[in-house]
Amino acid sequence: KQEVTQIPAALSVPEGENLVLNCSFTDSAIYNLQWFRQDPGKGLTSLLLIQSSQREQTSGRLNASLDKSSGRSTLYIAASQPGDSATYLCAPSSARQLTFGSGTQLTVLP
Amino acid sequence: DGGITQSPKYLFRKEGQNVTLSCEQNLNHDAMYWYRQDPGQGLRLIYYSQIVNDFQKGDIAEGYSVSREKKESFPLTVTSAQKNPTAFYLCASSDKSGYGYTFGSGTRLTVV
Fold it and tell me: pLDDT tens-digit profile of A69-100?
């Protein structure tokens, strides 16, 4: 059974810093991996999707990498802003199902 | 705009009652999913359906039931057998290839 771990559980940084969120998963036989953002009391917003054959994906200030063989993915956020404050969830997909980590709660201080 | 609509946003249930959460999508996606989220935890899969009139149990299906009579709709019933139903419920969909998931805005269920 797939297990997903996200480190750190919480992170507080001053505005403008570059930061890295980590995700590890136990079963490397994944179809793809998706990073989501969740604001308090809201649903999930998809940020980036990386296919299993890809190494990374970029969207604006976000860059996600995937090392399937080692069961790791990272989400890099450049020049963080207070509006980036949210919980970030990593979810590898296998057997057409997503498995979620507990997330990293990010606070960007102005 | 295409998307997933969940209703109601907030729902209160008395102990012993069944309640049904609605999920509708206009993305023409084949697969639909129900997740439960508890504070400080990740999402856990309750039920999923990859095609009309077919659905499978997820990791925590006990006390829940679903139906999939139409491609666009996947309602979730929380029965009185669910001992701890207070949680945030999220519905999602994906296309046949499983390429990317789209989530609704959630329903917060509280037992009073």
Answer: 999 999 999 999 999 999 999 999 987 788 99
Integer angstrom CA distances of residue A107 from A80, A86, A103, B49: 10, 7, 13, 36
Instruction: Answer for the pair B76, B47: CB distance below 8 angstroms, yes or no.
Output: yes
Q: How far apart are CA A95 and CA B71, in angstroms?
A: 20
**Is A52 at the interface with chain B, CB within 8 A?**
no
Interface check B19 vs A, CB under 8 A:
no
* A100 membership: H or E segment, kind and range: none
Positive/negative CA dihedral, B29, A46, A93, A59: positive
Q: Which helix (H) or strand (E) holds B53?
A: none
**Amino acid identity, position B17:** Q
Most distant CA pair in chain B: distance in Å? 41
Substitution target in A100, A102, A105 with the highest count of B β-carbons within 10 Å is A100
Cα-to-chain-centroid distance, residue A64? 7
Spatial separation of the C-alpha atoms in residues A35 and A82, rounded to whole Å? 19
Given A4, A34, A41, which is nearest B101 (Cβ)? A34
Distance between CA atoms of residues A86 and A81, nearest Å: 11
pLDDT for A1 beyond 90: no
Cβ-based neighbours of A104, under 8 Å, separated by 6 or more:
A6, A7, A8, A9, A10, A11, A21, A22, A87, A88
